[in-house]
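Forwarding the complex inputs:
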Amino acid sequence: MKARLGSLRRRKEPGASPGTLVHTGEVKADRVQIHRMDYDAERLNERELATVDEAFPLDEPGSVTWLNVDGLHDVGVVRTLGEHLGLHPLAMEDVLSTGQRPKLDDYGDVVYIAMRMVQYDPTTDDLIDEQVSLVVGPHVVVSFQERPGDVFEPVRERLRAGKGRLREAGADYLAYALVDAVVDHYFVALEQLSDAIEDVSEEILHSPDPASLERVHDLKRSLVFMRKSIWPLREVASKLVRGEASLFQPDTLVFVRDVYDHAVQVIDTVESLRDIVAGMHDIYLSSLSHRMNEVMKVLTIIATIFIPLTFIAGIYGMNFQYMPELQWRWGYFVALGIMALIAAVMVVLFRRKRWL
Amino acid sequence: MKARLGSLRRRKEPGASPGTLVHTGEVKADRVQIHRMDYDAERLNERELATVDEAFPLDEPGSVTWLNVDGLHDVGVVRTLGEHLGLHPLAMEDVLSTGQRPKLDDYGDVVYIAMRMVQYDPTTDDLIDEQVSLVVGPHVVVSFQERPGDVFEPVRERLRAGKGRLREAGADYLAYALVDAVVDHYFVALEQLSDAIEDVSEEILHSPDPASLERVHDLKRSLVFMRKSIWPLREVASKLVRGEASLFQPDTLVFVRDVYDHAVQVIDTVESLRDIVAGMHDIYLSSLSHRMNEVMKVLTIIATIFIPLTFIAGIYGMNFQYMPELQWRWGYFVALGIMALIAAVMVVLFRRKRWL
Amino acid sequence: MKARLGSLRRRKEPGASPGTLVHTGEVKADRVQIHRMDYDAERLNERELATVDEAFPLDEPGSVTWLNVDGLHDVGVVRTLGEHLGLHPLAMEDVLSTGQRPKLDDYGDVVYIAMRMVQYDPTTDDLIDEQVSLVVGPHVVVSFQERPGDVFEPVRERLRAGKGRLREAGADYLAYALVDAVVDHYFVALEQLSDAIEDVSEEILHSPDPASLERVHDLKRSLVFMRKSIWPLREVASKLVRGEASLFQPDTLVFVRDVYDHAVQVIDTVESLRDIVAGMHDIYLSSLSHRMNEVMKVLTIIATIFIPLTFIAGIYGMNFQYMPELQWRWGYFVALGIMALIAAVMVVLFRRKRWL
Amino acid sequence: MKARLGSLRRRKEPGASPGTLVHTGEVKADRVQIHRMDYDAERLNERELATVDEAFPLDEPGSVTWLNVDGLHDVGVVRTLGEHLGLHPLAMEDVLSTGQRPKLDDYGDVVYIAMRMVQYDPTTDDLIDEQVSLVVGPHVVVSFQERPGDVFEPVRERLRAGKGRLREAGADYLAYALVDAVVDHYFVALEQLSDAIEDVSEEILHSPDPASLERVHDLKRSLVFMRKSIWPLREVASKLVRGEASLFQPDTLVFVRDVYDHAVQVIDTVESLRDIVAGMHDIYLSSLSHRMNEVMKVLTIIATIFIPLTFIAGIYGMNFQYMPELQWRWGYFVALGIMALIAAVMVVLFRRKRWL
Amino acid sequence: MKARLGSLRRRKEPGASPGTLVHTGEVKADRVQIHRMDYDAERLNERELATVDEAFPLDEPGSVTWLNVDGLHDVGVVRTLGEHLGLHPLAMEDVLSTGQRPKLDDYGDVVYIAMRMVQYDPTTDDLIDEQVSLVVGPHVVVSFQERPGDVFEPVRERLRAGKGRLREAGADYLAYALVDAVVDHYFVALEQLSDAIEDVSEEILHSPDPASLERVHDLKRSLVFMRKSIWPLREVASKLVRGEASLFQPDTLVFVRDVYDHAVQVIDTVESLRDIVAGMHDIYLSSLSHRMNEVMKVLTIIATIFIPLTFIAGIYGMNFQYMPELQWRWGYFVALGIMALIAAVMVVLFRRKRWL
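Prediction (whole assembly, five chains):
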């Protein structure tokens, strides 16, 4: 559950000065890796940086620089980059405190975007989430991730391939491409979640047991958490579409509208899945009730049939000296016959009541 | 459930370049069929196209051309049509990715409308859904469907009949007529769903079993899905009514307002049915509880009456040497009498408590 | 349930041309009756029309004409009236298709208002609903009802009495009076529904059985349906209050605000009743559980007391040759004593646990 | 429940003319009492009026007149007062129809305010509610109550004491003071309700029975009703704060904002209590389930232990001629030993499963 | 529960004059302590005041004075401070009535902010809450707390340390820092609550008993209460961000936006936890049902197997004179064999039905 309530973790001591740069949260990467790509329509340079100082100076204005930072535990890296880009101390703090709610803060010539990336692990039913921050300047984008991962790899491939709009457009388009990649990842997670739901659904209908119920509740939590991550991301996209960040060109906004549509679609699907999962507990209980009823019915029928018969046997087991039936020649068989008759009548009765 | 979560399917690899034309989703038609109708108030030409190239050139400005494409798996067809009409690459991609949320994108001189058409299959309780896209230009409408179907047949009939406003009005009115046909189809599906609900409702009250519960949950999901399809369609109509797409003439908007009203009515009905279906699970559980109670009561009564009697029989079945009652002349009959008395008292008692 | 999902019925074949005049829905009146009243402050003429042609010409401008049509199955009547008044074909179609959502369409010099009139039948727990349409012109009001009824009788009486504002005011005030009469009828239905709820509530607490549960669900559906009818009616009133229909004079709007308040009050009451009805299912289940627990307790206690006693009797009913107790002089009585003791201890124990 | 659905009672026959003055609702006072206070900063006159005619003329402009009317069944009183003040007939009708939703109607130089006063009766768990209407003119306030009560007594005391702002301010401030007194009364009722909830909560946890469940539902209804009364009252305050009633001076609005805050606080508390009460039904059911489980467990254990033992006893009670064990010297004791062993094993087993 | 419904407590007698200064609520501090800090960028004076009169005069305009008052039971202190600062009587009353809903009242040159500080006590599952009021003037901040506590200690430390923005900025920034400290405390409480939820969750799954259910409901109430405290605090922040309090400088608003973000994050987390807690009751019930089913199954199986066997034993325990089987040489063993066979068949049957 840690991951799910991740956004609960607070960045620093309560009451501490705002803008205090402290990394909070688990260290999820061994060392901080910085990857730099400089490109324009004609040219692409790409390399791993040994130290943060190689990140500057940026390339000449006509091109775009993308700095990708994996690992957040080195406060110095963040501070150096932030100060070079003229980032507000609060935004630097937000990069480091890995429990951010997705948001967009526009500081005029620099835009800060916080997002949450989700990954569903089907083997453990766990939702792993990670904070991804973007700092977008006029011709630079810095992306911060908690751990080395490849959600941005397809974007890198597209840059290398040199086809499409990406190489020709500006930093705002690159930022859009990265946001798009994150939103796209929600679809992957949703597809896996949906399969898991399908799965559990089968389980519950055919052999309801507490373990599958626990899985249902895990799924529910995952959806609650996803919802919590995607709603504010939709707001981020909506703010961009409304043109609240002047760094983003009108040309790019058509594409951002697309991201917005996808975010809405993710929300729609999350809500539908939530509806479906919400119904599962009910199915579980009904399924359980139904099984219990089946069991009870068998007990009832067997007990109800045999209890009177046993009573009759008990009567003729009594040791009274004067019990005329006992002397009868066919007494025993008559008794057995009566018993059989009673049993038969009961079976017929139960059949009629459709209990059998 | 695949169909129901249809909108989950993502158009392409996460992170791929926007505007990449890849058909995603099942291939639901054998081959792509293109049907072309050119008409104005006086004249109507209609024919099946052998290749997409016959779609151009369009007719002279005074008339309207309607191109209907059944089947989406031929990416080339979509690209050719899109490029001729000056469609934005993102919109072309949306045509091909068959999990679109209904939406309206206004690109100035071309309007893209995505809708979902639903069909309820009463034999399997399945809701089949299909993406229908419209591309509306100044005097052309292109409609894309996933499979050959006849939801637009009545519109074609009206065109052929040559009566009514349709032949005289422009492409925007044709687009309206097509949207109207899709919304109208929701009513058909709702009517069938409503009958199925009526049906299951009877089943549940009179013989609740898990199969009917499963049907309830299928119905619930169908409604969830329908709601997900019609809400954004209402938004599409609402955008049109507000005049956000300048291609649509004020004359046509009166009719679009009608479509909007119908969409709202569909939503109202879906919500009412959801309310009714939501109550069914409760009825099911109560119905089950009630039956179980009936069964339990019978067990209780029979057991409660016979257990003490059997005990008495047990007592006189003991083999103690000195048991005075056993020697009594009328012992046996007294014992039987006492047993009958106890049974009678119990029956009276249970009657009083209204358990019997 | 037919009536409840009434608004589901669609006006015509899906995809048919808008403005096609076809009556859909049950024929609820034998023949179409048209009643005409012409009045001004001094004068009142009233008569039944033999044919629709007598409806015209209207009276001179200073007076108001009210045409009330009972029965909708004669399409010709609606068309004739509609065309004389310059009604939009879509509105004519709406008059005829009796599943309209309440709405107000302003066509400038003619206003179309659709409402739903509800009536609760306490003997069958059924909610009967009927579509009432008003077409309001500068000095004419045409009201369409599905069946001859007298919800407008009080208005007619007021006109005949000649007192009050009604005779002096214009067609807009008459329209207000008719809307008010319809909204007032909701209060009558709600009062009856509320009595029925009170009734069922008693039933459920004191003798819960599935029949009363079915009644609860009927009541729930009636409320769902009422809600669906009154919400859009509130919107109609709200539109009028905001002055969206220029035909309505400011003087009349003060009264329309009153209607609006009443509609809100109806909604409030419907919501409260829904809250109360929603709780009933829970009460039913608890009531059932409680009864079942009572039954189970008795079984438990009797079984638990007698099972060990019967076991003891069983022991001394064994036929082992060497069973010393059997030879004891007081063996039988000791055994009986022990049994009584065990029973007493158990009763005390159960008393303590407050199960008895 | 009458009081709770009070607002259902309709003022007059459906369809009757608006502005018809008819008192509807119970007569809650023996006779109509009118109390008159005239005051300015220096002076205070106070007297009971014998007839309504003594209410006029009002005092000279510099002072404020407060007329308090207890009892509404004398239509003449309301009409006389209303006509003198130039009150709209609809407002007069609202005063008399005691099922009003709280509202504010601004007629320019006269403001009509309807409120509902609630009182909780802890002995019967009943919520008593009463309509209080205020008619505010430039230097006069008329308050109408259904029954003689003292919710306004503290205001009278403050007027008599002559301290504070009240004596110096105008009629609008007096109106504010009266609204404040009504809102303050909600806190009293809420405090009592909250105690009752606390109470029932204890009851349910420790001895759940249907009576306490009925109390829960009474509390729920009381909260539903309170919510229905306070929400529109908040709107009234909100309208005043927004300056929609020009009679209210800006100086007074600061205080009205305070009333608004209190109304919001009442709503908050009502919602919290509703949340808590909503959970009670669940606790009740769980509490019941838990008790039933305890009972069932005892039955299970006793039955499960003795049933096999009784079976063994039954075997050796059979009368077969050749049953070797019966002849054994220690047969009886061995049988007893085996029985004891089986019982012991079972007890151990149940202990392990933690059923005992 | 007292604390949870704390905001219910009303400040004074209903109907009393607004602005009456009466302390309501528990006295939570022994004596009123006033702490004064005067600072500017260079200088910091700090001392405990013996009497309230030492609070004035304030320092020269260039510096900021922070007066922190612990304990509210001395009405004189509040009145003296309030009057010196020109505080509206209603605001003074709000300081003293400790059940305020968080709010911001802007009186032009003085801003009044009410907040609720929460603390979770994990040992008792209690949520302790306290009202904190801020009165902000052009270069003075007065903070009122109910009891001496150290939530503001970190702010004091930062002032003493003299680093950061705090010493250089104005009173508005100090006010921001104090609001931030309060909001930060919610994270601490949430983290503890979240741990408690985790805890109870385990409990419920593995040994569901009513005590843990009670804990669930306590947690639910705590969350309801927290929600009630933080929502209006968000509104306070939102008002500040929108620039509604002119005392707050644009420079400070960037930081207030940060507080706003944190409040939203608290709300998000509270809602997620509420979702999770809401599901717990269901898990509890299922867990209970499942256990009961297990118990019932054992009873059913044992009873169902032995009841027929005991019946057979009963038959051969009858004392009829002519019972041929009794004379058979192997009768006894055949009977035992049949019994074993029946038992075996049943066990196999139950296995197949997967009841065993």
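Residues 290-352 of chain A form a domain with the Methane Monooxygenase Hydroxylase; Chain G, domain 1 fold (CATH 1.20.58.340).
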